Amino acid sequence: MTLLIVGATGTLGRQVVRRAIDEGYKVRCLVRSVRKAAFLKEWGAELVPGDLCYPQTLQPALEGVTAIIDAATSRPTDSQTIKQVDWEGKVSLIQAAKAAGVERYIFFSILDADKYPEVPLMEIKRCTEAFLAESGLNYTILRLAGFMQGLIGQYGIPILEGQPVWVTGESSPIAYMDTQDIAKFAIRALSIPETEKQVFPVVGTRPWSAEEIISVCERLSGKDARVTRMPMGLLRAMRGLLRFFQWGWNVSDRLAFTEVLASGKSLNASMDEVYQVFGFDSQEVTTLEVYLQEYFSRIMKKLREIDYEKNKNKKKKEKKTPFKKVNSQ
Length: 329
Known about the structure:
By secondary structure, this protein is an alpha/beta fold. It has helices spanning 13-22, 38-43, 58-62, 82-100, 120-134, 149-161, 179-189, 210-221, 232-242, 249-255, 258-261, 272-278, 288-318; strands at 2-6, 26-31, 46-49, 67-70, 104-110, 139-144, 164-168, 198-201, 226-230.
């Protein structure tokens, strides 16, 4: 089976590539920059240049492909908008996959996307789910809540460096999951008939609020967090201002997602049936405490090593010379 993985250089996509290669699949990656994706080739993946926003580049990448795992999404720093990548690009990919006779299509969506029609990314995910279901492709949709990897930049690093930790509105508890675990579900779906033309939540062991995550980071790092609360009114004003400029549309649409994170509504779902269908044990899934503990253990060890080297070099410099200092009269 040949897999085409789209969004392969992203936080989730690279884990899907790694897992697929480890399980013996032949992996092809659609990439915009072969140079930036060189690490995937080193792992054993085939790289094919292409871009969702240029449909004519998709057909060569789909030749001989059995299944697609779609982990692509726009980034705040991209020149393309969410609409261009996550809607128009995905429509082109789904149509091209259908034309190429692709047998399976695994799509990553967002939990509760249908409940936030005013949030561009959520509404686009909902529409993409519907388009995929009506396409005639044999699909599996995995609805995610959040990545544990994102918590490092949001909470871990700022706390370690004494920088402000931004919290907006009423913190929504979110069932974050390690992307390595999400990748396991995506690859397993390919071999289980019961996942065909089905939608599943794929979330962590329990939801965590911002305050709970900050508390865990403080305990593991031994440092106090500088929590700064951002009023929702100010963020909405920033969104409105950015909409006046074309270069600000993507950032504005991304800021809209804070409405979800600050709504106070939990992003979580029962995984009991999902574990049964996929044949996984819930004990195999990484918990947020364990993930953060491993991160802080590594970083604190590295910091101690750096301090040791600094102190060792300092002592060498302070070592007395064999010549006595002569005081001038």
